[in-house]
Q: What sequence folds into this?
């Protein structure tokens, strides 16, 4: 039995409440709400929320209810199980409290939070739930929800993200989605979508279930597909162990392997600068923009699989993924008024491609696989980020392979044609390079690559791009192939880029969010994109309505003994 | 050259403005905004909006901008072209004004409208656009947008619903989606989705285009896929005629056929009752519910195809479709506080099935086809209606075939087991019957039948239901097969039904809308469901935000010379 490594938690108060920004960096030694134990191939995540440990003052985290701080720890635990524990083949999530698994998101927190905070909280929570499913599907680390007490709302939604759900049959424990009847909102973290599209609960039963605050337990919960098994108290421990062992036995994780320790992420945060080793963000509060620069590898890629394992979290792709991931989360919640993120890269594109190649040459290695999956998840965060994304391709940049995904994730990309007049003799015009990393491994939530989504319905354009894979593409060619939006020459460059950023800051922030959420997802939808699209958009609308968030709305009235005042108008 | 038949337009003022409810019944003799001409196989719909003809006082419909009244006429014209004009094989939509095709939805109307009105307006407009695509795809009546002037916002979105778009090249006419930059909202009627998923415009170009109020014209509009052809002024008339003739030449519409006249729909509207010949709605304002009763055929189905043509709009399935369609539209916009619609049927299920059979025996007949398609569209309206739908299956009901779709569209269905104690000797327990109409012809917007959607991910349950097609299924059996939600016996019936309706009225209207919008659409998404789901949900959210609808928001400030006051916070 052992815990997980690491150290270095930062502070953490939301911008709105304190000057200190929320910090997403944490490690098991600092957890206040979760315990992690590992026995052989099975890890157990015990949720045991510290009532007094809320991220923001003003509410108590009773009954294993959670806020962003609790979920930051869960996200960290899920990440570390993947990277630090190759031996873990199944993960049990259960509760350290008696008779309650988890009461869901804390209502006091929701009632007091700004609209933006609620939306950001749900987004991050959704991403962590999707990450649990990704670990099950792609890392052979299957999650088992062992509901040793009632799972309500977000508590049940956490269970829904697991591969299997066991519910204790003690004649009182149930699963429930009481958000609609009690709070006038939707289950905000994928519950409805997973009920229908993952567990295949019939729509009318899902409707009925979602209006019953008392929930459903026992054999009925099994019959409706809400849980997989209902287990009596005296058979509980053994049943959980048996299912966990069975899930573990199906895993393809290695039997003998050393984990990759995720050491504390070095980060400097100043008023106008956030910097890491390979990533730096300059915050331009006047323009409402952030300039994010990703540095390519400082040296040539190592050769051979052992190098990846030896370098661990120093390995450039993993280090960049961790830094970008943290930066995205930081900016999303702490810098709400910086509406445009402008990407820059600098370095040698050939080195980026060499690192990509090394990773992709070893798809059967658990760590190489984990690193690619982490890159995929980090890029997916960009796709659902409510900020305008602009990529600037200038001489000295290295948008190749995995870094080209920043261009493909962007709402617009500018690629400089030629070189600035004052350039030295060594400066070459900027090029971009399509590599194997762009053709499959880091797909979007819709299951397609960013290239496939970009050229949806236009297979010949996609084929033309694929035919140029590996070639350095200057601006004119990249524009013709449809890989970049505009290719201004060096004379027009500054003006065009400045206008694009200024214009963006002058538009309605909400309309931009809607525009981007629609334009980024051409083509088919998946359960994941339905959660971030259809479901989240409806939830955001409801969060913004007086029936939920107004002074007489259900979120404000909950727990006061007063009934909410509802406007019955159907919209 | 001839116009279209019909008579009998009602009044039409929105509930909020006048006591007189909006009436969706209209006919060409009363059009104020459209002219319909037919030459051989080509119909032309000329949009020539009467500035003073707004449905609500307070705005002028300048520059061919439209409000709900304009769109009610368009919907009527599209319907009549399908039913009354089998000879029409392609339809040209163009403008009767100089240099302007259509400026989109009227801003004064949008600025003054309630949130519910805006949402309802967009929904109906969306349904009409989808209906145009349905006519093109399934009725061999292809639409050609002949943009003889600038098409902005909703004007361009109307063009996007057409199969092909021609834009005049006069050095000033463009297509544009200026909603985001000018109004702080999204193109609300499918624009973004159709740009990406229908016309395959690249996402970054779509983003750029949607921020340019001046739009894009000429060869650039063609290169980006925004239009199909840019045509000089002197070639315009011929080019439009050529394309229209080409579209007509590909049509499978009959060459020799008499149309089916849609005579004025007889309707009585009182304070608490809306009634037609086969459909009646009792408005229970205390309970916040509407009881809708659909009567089955009054006699045996006729035999043979000629009977359908002879009966025309008296043919029971067509008559019911028209009445239900009108009722849905009426209740949606005029009765916002009646949040639950309770369906009842009465009649002989065998007769319903016989009518279904007669229709489905003649898939190649244009009129039989049109009637089935109309039933499909009408049922699809229910799927996107923001009202709770409950179906009650009681002795004497006739939920078979097409009427069983009301059960399958409902959020919950109650099926009485046994018969009430006081029943006479002739009363049989209620049964439902699955028929061929439930297995394909009236699919939902996601492309699946309601049964396939209901049993998404559960093919054995679907197979079990199909195996019982044609059998009268009593409550117990229907419940086991998963066709109904609950099967209370006659003793519990009244209480259970009453509680279900009462409870629904006590929930947050907004949360119910979100719940239903998610639960009704398990499984895959289509362009149509993306428009009504992802896109509309975001638009509704934006409509509700201060940046758009607040006192300093863009919708209110438009045209005042004052810039909107934007909160730059990104949510």
A:
């Amino acid at each position: 039995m052992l815990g997980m490594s690491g150290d270095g938690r930062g502070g953490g108060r939301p911008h709105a409440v304190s000057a200190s920004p929320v910090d997403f960096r944490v490690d098991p030694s600092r957890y206040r709400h979760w315990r992690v134990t590992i026995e052989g191939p099975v890890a157990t995540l015990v949720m045991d929320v510290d009532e007094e440990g809320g991220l923001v003052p003003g509410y108590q985290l009773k009954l294993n209810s959670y806020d962003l701080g609790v979920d930051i720890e869960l996200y960290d635990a899920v990440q570390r199980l993947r990277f630090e524990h190759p031996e873990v083949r199944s993960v049990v999530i259960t509760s350290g409290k008696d008779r309650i698994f988890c009461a869901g998101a804390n209502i006091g927190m929701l009632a007091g939070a700004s609209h933006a905070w609620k939306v950001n909280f749900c987004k991050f929570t959704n991403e962590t739930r999707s990450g649990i499913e990704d670990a099950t599907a792609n890392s052979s680390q299957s999650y088992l929800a062992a509901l040793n007490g009632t799972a309500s709302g977000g508590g049940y939604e956490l269970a829904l993200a697991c591969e299997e759900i066991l519910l204790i049959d003690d004649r009182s424990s149930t699963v429930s989605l009481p958000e609609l009847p009690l709070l006038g909102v939707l289950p905000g973290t994928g519950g409805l979508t997973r009920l229908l599209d993952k567990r295949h609960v019939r729509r009318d039963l899902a409707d009925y279930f979602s209006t019953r605050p008392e929930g459903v337990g026992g054999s009925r919960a099994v019959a409706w597909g809400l849980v997989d098994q209902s287990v009596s108290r005296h058979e509980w421990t053994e049943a959980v162990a048996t299912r966990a062992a069975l899930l573990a036995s199906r895993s393809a994780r290695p039997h003998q392997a050393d984990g990759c320790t995720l050491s504390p992420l070095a980060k400097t945060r100043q008023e106008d600068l956030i910097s890491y080793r390979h990533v730096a963000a300059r915050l331009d509060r006047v323009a409402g923009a952030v300039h994010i620069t990703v540095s390519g590898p400082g040296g040539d890629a190592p050769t051979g699989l052992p190098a990846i394992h030896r370098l661990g979290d120093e390995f450039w792709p993993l280090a960049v993924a961790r830094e970008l991931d943290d930066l995205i989360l930081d900016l999303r919640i702490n810098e709400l008024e910086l509406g445009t993120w402008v990407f820059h890269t600098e370095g040698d594109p050939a080195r980026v491609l060499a690192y990509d190649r090394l990773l992709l040459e070893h798809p059967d290695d658990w760590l190489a696989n984990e690193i690619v999956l982490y890159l995929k998840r980090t890029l997916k965060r960009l796709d659902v980020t409510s900020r305008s994304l602009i990529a600037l391709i200038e001489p000295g940049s290295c948008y190749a392979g995995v870094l080209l995904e920043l261009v493909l994730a962007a709402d617009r990309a500018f690629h400089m044609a030629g070189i600035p007049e004052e350039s030295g003799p060594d400066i070459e015009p900027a090029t971009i390079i399509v590599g194997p990393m762009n053709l499959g491994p880091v797909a979007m939530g819709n299951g397609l690559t960013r290239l496939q989504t970009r050229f949806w319905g236009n297979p010949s354009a996609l084929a033309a791009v694929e035919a140029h894979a590996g070639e350095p593409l200057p601006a004119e060619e990249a524009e013709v192939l449809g890989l970049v939006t505009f290719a201004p020459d060096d004379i027009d460059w500054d003006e065009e880029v400045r206008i694009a950023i200024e214009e963006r800051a002058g538009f309605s922030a909400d309309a931009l969010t809607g525009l981007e959420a629609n334009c980024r997802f051409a083509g088919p939808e998946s359960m994941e994109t339905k959660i971030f699209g259809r479901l989240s958009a409806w939830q955001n609308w409801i969060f913004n309505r007086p029936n939920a968030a107004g002074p007489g709305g259900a979120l404000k009235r909950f727990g006061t003994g007063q009934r909410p005042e509802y406007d019955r108008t159907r919209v």
Observations:
- The CA atoms of residues 394 and 477 of chain A lie 15 Å apart.
- Chain A touches chain B through 89 residues (CB under 8 Å).
- The radius of gyration of chain A is 24 Å.
